[in-house]
Amino acid sequence: AFPLMLRAQDIDGKLIDQVMGFTSEDQKMKFLGTKEHNLYGFLSLVSQHTKDNKDVVARSLTVWLKRKGVVLEAQKRFQDALALSDDPKVMEKARELARIRGQLSRLTFAGPGKEGPEAYRKKIKEIEEEKERLEAELSRLSDAFAKTKKVGKADAMQVASSLPQGSALIDFVKLPVYSFTAKGKEKRWLSPRYLAFILPAGRADSVSLIDLGDAAGTDRLITDLRRAITNYEADPEGRDSSRISRRLYDRVFLPLSKELKDTKDIYISPDGNLNLIPFEILKGPGNRYLIEDYTFNYLGSGRDILGFGMVKGKSSKPLVIGDPDYNLDETGQKDSLRKLGITPGTRSVATRSRDMSSKEFSPLPGTKEEVESITSLLGKKETSLYTGKDALEEVLMKHKGPKVLHLATHGFFLTDQDLLDEKRKAPYENPLVRSGIVLAGANRSMKTGTDEGIVTAEKILSLRLHGTDLVVLSACETGLGDVKSGEGVFGLRRAFTQAGTKGLVMSLWSVPDKETKEIMVNFYTNALVKKMKRPEALRQAILTELTGVRKRYGTTNPFFWGAFVYMGEP
Known about the structure:
The chain is an alpha/beta fold. 46% of the residues lie in helices and 16% in strands.
């Protein structure tokens, strides 16, 4: 069965590669959905019957490396082609797509207004269809060029030899399991489980596949842990989070630690809801957090390692934006734009739905000090800094390829339920307009139905970040989004990755202002002055903060120090 199913995966892979070249993102996702059961059946066979055969496991990992995040990979190739193309037709279509994305974000946040829910839904549908048409057209125009920039055909051997010496890759899979013994009316597809491939550096012949058990139990613990941490006021000492953290460790990391042996440098590609927790906060033996013993470098897919070191585009000087004036009025916005020499874009005005008009963003005192300290570390003359009235959306959107992009502000992630229309039905599903960051004038936008200062992930896709080494999202919940098994998290992390950045620092819950500022300043000091690799620079900054929090509050509650993770090229 294995050689036949492997051959079937090869055929599916070729079909998927063809479809990726000429369709919109939504069409890509739908097509992948028709191939999922073949993949999950194949991995079910391996995990149930052949996981002790190292050669079979290595070949299975190769299949997973090619399939995990394949839509994101295709969209990144597409963005690369746009950014590096000099075809006037491609550039014209790209500008049109950017305009449509902005229109979609504005309409979503404006809500139904006087037109009513039916007309609103119809308009949204029309814009979505236009966006899909443009994406498909651009894919066709740029496919030949995009394919020349594609990361080589990933396999377990290549990835193993690309891993730094002494490190290992953990690549998780969440899948419904197929029963090969079911008869008659017995269930053939059983409850989802988590699996993990462990690949040591340079040793593809030593790859392991570990079954981590029922996914529902793990997902419940993840939900409970996130709730316990963010509800820190009810449990300031973090007793609940400690208890749940230990249970989660026993479930998802203890079985892996036996295979990892002494390896402490971990490249980790989560799947499913494992994308929503920092592994650093899990508590292992001796009541120690994993961050005290391991350095984690997060990846969308293990295949990403093969792209490390590739030069994508020219960099411009670092861009730092923070401490925005959320209450900036229209006159102030025009004055700032005039002073900065930026031509304002066209804006739409509509009545905002009740769900959004109640939101208001308060000042973050620590962000001003944070961005000034970071600008000093980057070099004041070599860095563009924008704060207060100048911390505008237009500033962010006009900069191309800043070597470092640092954003210190509020972030948001809205569930479907947060964007229900006035009749409390038909949630709008696009997760890329439900996550974002806010800049100057956002509070006015919340009240008036315009969208200046509300930078959704959908808008971020129009940024040109080829040449950008690092994006730091020093804000709340910037790593959250809608989780799709095998494709990661649809939100800001996906948008910035797709737009071209090599590395990303993001948060997985609402973060406190004071501690965030301290972590960020220490992170830049470690990376720029002490020349540490970025994951290690963040780890050391967090460990310093963990010590400070213990002295300051008499607790090690991860709420204060544990939210930030590093994803991408180290």
